[in-house]
Structures are given as C-alpha cells and as structure tokens.
C-alpha cells in the first residue's frame, strides 16, 4: 500500500506513535461508512497476529488526553470488537481542515472504495481546494444548470494542478478526476446519504443517471433505492416518475421480442450495456423536454 504521507505535497508534520485509550478517541464527521464485514476480517487478523498499520489521530485543542480519529475507523472498530482497551496510534497536530484532507488522502489510495465513496472524497477535496485557493470555484448553487455549465469550462488553470494531484493519489486519469468532481457537484447530498450501502453506490453508470435528475427527483429515486428498488429504472417506477401500466408491459414485450430475435436470452454483460444505453437515452429525452415544459409554464 502506498504511504499517504509520502504522497502529500504539504511539509511533514510532527508525529509520534503510542498506545491510546480507545475511550479517549472521538469519531466525528466521517465521510465513509464502517464496513462491518471488513471490521470482522480485521479483528480476526489482529487476534492471530497484530495491527500492522497504526491508526492516525489528532490532538484535541483545549482538551488534554482526548483525540479525534483521522484515519483507521475500521481498525478502531475491530479493536472494540475484540474488547481491547488501547490501540496503537500515530498522533499528529492538525486543524479540522487538515484532518479531513488526511482522511480523504488516506482513503483515496485504497482500492476498496465504492464509486460513490470515491466521488464524495474527490468532491470534498475539491471543495477544500476551492476554499484554500481564491481563484478556484467549486462551490455555488450545485442545483443550477447555470453553475454546472460555468464550472465545466471555467478555472481550468486553477484546477489543473488539483486534477493532477488527485490523479497521482488515486491512479485515475485527470479526465476521470474532472468527471468525478463534476458528478459530485450534481449529486444531491440527501440522495447520497440515502444510497450509501446500496448496489447503486458502486455503479458509475447508475450514479451518472441519478445525477442528471433534478435534486427533488434524485431524493425520491434514492429513497426508493434505499427501500429495496434494485436500480434507477425500478426506482423511477416506484417513485411515480414512470407509469407502471401499459408502458411497462410494452417494454417487457419489446424485451421478449429482442431476445427472440437474438435466438437466446441476453447475457449479464449485454443487459448491463443495454441498460446503460437506455439510461442515457432517458436522460437525453428528459433534458430535451425541459425547455418545452418551462415555456408551457410561462404561457399558462
């Protein structure tokens, strides 16, 4: 595993490693959910050997012998599961912004992130970058199409260094970083909270389809997914955005005709590819209807 500290462009900060009381560690404002299965796997490994990588904590200003978790929540939960009282930790003096950046950097170099986690981490890193660089603009009203169009082409010089650095940390291309940052800007925070832990959270095509909807529709569709709808298409029906009657039956008949034409049922990869193309056509069709709807509203 690459060392996150060696990837940082910031100067090294003083740190030391000690055994820290688990009860003295506060876990606040984490960007990623704990993976219980992964926690159990870590606990099993620790019980047979030892903790190979200490967690990272930061001192709490104004509070002696209390710390804030920076990196290693799964490892911390594994120690709690084993009933341990202390855990090896590297202690650093960090501001709130530095703690969040360290958490993001530590997670971005790992391969087990879902597509949604990676999007949130890159997006939050971009927000911090924007706050620290007056010439960069990553904020504004993410709900507006005007903001998205403006930020798609503006600030290219300011964001070039950000994309290169994020690409270096993740192994993704700079173009992928740009697309991920744009996706984060489109996703409703409420929708993100709802789809965490679902299959959609690790499906880039599904995330893109969700992001193209208006924020209110995103939340409704995400709620349907959280309640059991397996994908965006099913969630749109549950949320009432696609009629269940004749249109759905017609689609089922069309699918049956296509399978008959092929002489066999579709493979999983073929279904996924077809679904991606259909989702793209839905998004394009909805986008084409928006001006007409707006005009109709003004004349009414």
How would you characterize this protein structure?
With 300 residues, this protein is of the alpha/beta class. The protein has 3 domains: 4-94, Conserved hypothetical protein from pyrococcus furiosus pfu- 392566-001, ParB domain (Alpha-Beta Complex), CATH 3.90.1530; 113-186, no CATH class; 189-300, no CATH class. 59% of the residues lie in helices and 10% in strands. It has 14 helices and 5 strands. The chain has helices at residues 4-7, 36-48, 73-81, 96-108, 115-132, 145-153, 156-170, 174-186, 189-195, 204-211, 215-226, 232-238, 246-262, 268-299, and strands at residues 15-21, 25-26, 55-60, 63-71, 86-92. It has a 5-stranded mixed beta sheet with strand order 1-5-3-4-2. Helix 5 (115-132) crosses helix 8. The longest helix is centred in the C-terminal third of the chain and has 32 residues, at 268-299. The relative contact order is 0.08.
